[in-house]
Amino acid sequence: MLRITLPLQKQVTPVPTISRVAIIGGGFTGATIARLLALHGQYWPHEIVIFEPRADLGGGLAYDTNDPSLRLNVAAHRMRAVPGDPQAFLRWLSNSGRLGRDPGAMANGAIYARRADFAAFMAGQIQPFIDDGIVRHVRERAERICRRHGRWQIEGDGGAALQADVVVIATGHPPPTPPGELASHLSVDHRFMPDPSRPEALSAIRRDDKVLVVGAGLTALDALGALRARGHRAEITLVSRTGYLPQPQAAGDFAPHGDFLIGVPNTALSLLERVRFALREVTEAGLPWQSVFEALRHQGQAIWRALPLLEQRRVLRHLRRRFEAHRYRMPPQIAELVERDRIAGRLKTCAGRIVAVRPGRAEIAIDIATKPHGTVERHAAQWVIVATGPDHGNVIGSQSCLAELESLGLLTKDPRGLGIACDHDSRALARDGYPVEDLFVAGPLARGAFGELTGVPEIAAQAERIAQQILAMSVATTRTITIRSM
């Protein structure tokens, strides 16, 4: 009898290790990461979970508004929100009919869409994955995040509780922190608005009430635009440390100008000198100065990474406000409103710091030590609005789930005061300085590591990198079965 033993090896189809991903925050950043993960087709139903109290995903604080006066400050064709499809939003805007219903969108030869339209676009991007069950939307705010049996335990403020293998913190911008003088004297005064982003916040202001806005950036101009759209006609004063307003957008299209990656500047001073040289070049060539700041935006992350921590802090201390006024520009519609109001005397700006606050029955009096000589000026208004922008230095303290992670040593503040400390792979840095492999920081909260991480194209690119890293963590395992035939 002939007996033959043939060892046969059969490779079975790889079995993926499916990991549940919990995304904290469902604005543009969180929704984009969820969509990119869902597109890969690797996850089972409800294995991608977003904690977001808003009804719709994709809008977040920045775009979730029904106020038609609030527009994107970037032209629609530059809103490269979908990786691999840079014109997706512009195409949707036209095909959906929303552009045809917005006659005021066209300005300076470009389309500046309403923020509500961009929110609707983003909601449409993620909704199919919610409908088919791949993405689960938990309409709660994450209250607790901790470790339990080697996994993450997440609990919401409405009773939801689940475990996950990976957590992505994508909560976006924290609320502003009012200056101390305002907080101590006006904290219980109904005429004091520490957060103008709430939809009902401005509705109580009457058309002839004087308004003092603390801040002079895009948030302050949002308040200006929203009030004027409601028929407000009284004086509005913008108070800030520098008095700089966001600069206007340039008309038409233009290419970025300036190569800052050849001999990358490694000090704040050398960076400033390079920028000034590039500005002189474009001025002499008759090109818009905005082209230099477009180059800075494109090359910003590499420039930031080349600066030592000490020089990064110098940039923030000495150059930040000037940079932001030129980098985060106002849409043409708001620029026109600002110019019109200035000429009519309805809009005033003041550079200085608040030194005294005296609330009265009819008005609130505020003393400001003005620049450059410290002369004290008294301003009076019926309403005071805080529009100082997000307090990134206090982001951990503003959210209980982040504070708990910090108490566990799994999260730390960014040493530059720009949010949460993370490495260049967007992994959160623990108290000991080492990255937490399964905890990611996405969006503006990671600005400390990346520098340029506020615009939609930059956030979309980071979201794509994070999604690829998470997918790589779900490594396919191959079971090798040996069959012996006798």
UniProtKB/TrEMBL annotation:
<dbReference type="Pfam" id="PF13454">
    <property type="entry name" value="NAD_binding_9"/>
</dbReference>
<protein>
    <recommendedName>
        <fullName>FAD-dependent urate hydroxylase HpyO/Asp monooxygenase CreE-like FAD/NAD(P)-binding domain-containing protein</fullName>
    </recommendedName>
</protein>
<dbReference type="InterPro" id="IPR038732">
    <property type="entry name" value="HpyO/CreE_NAD-binding"/>
</dbReference>
<feature type="domain" description="FAD-dependent urate hydroxylase HpyO/Asp monooxygenase CreE-like FAD/NAD(P)-binding">
    <location>
        <begin position="22"/>
        <end position="173"/>
    </location>
</feature>
<dbReference type="InterPro" id="IPR052189">
    <property type="entry name" value="L-asp_N-monooxygenase_NS-form"/>
</dbReference>
<dbReference type="InterPro" id="IPR036188">
    <property type="entry name" value="FAD/NAD-bd_sf"/>
</dbReference>
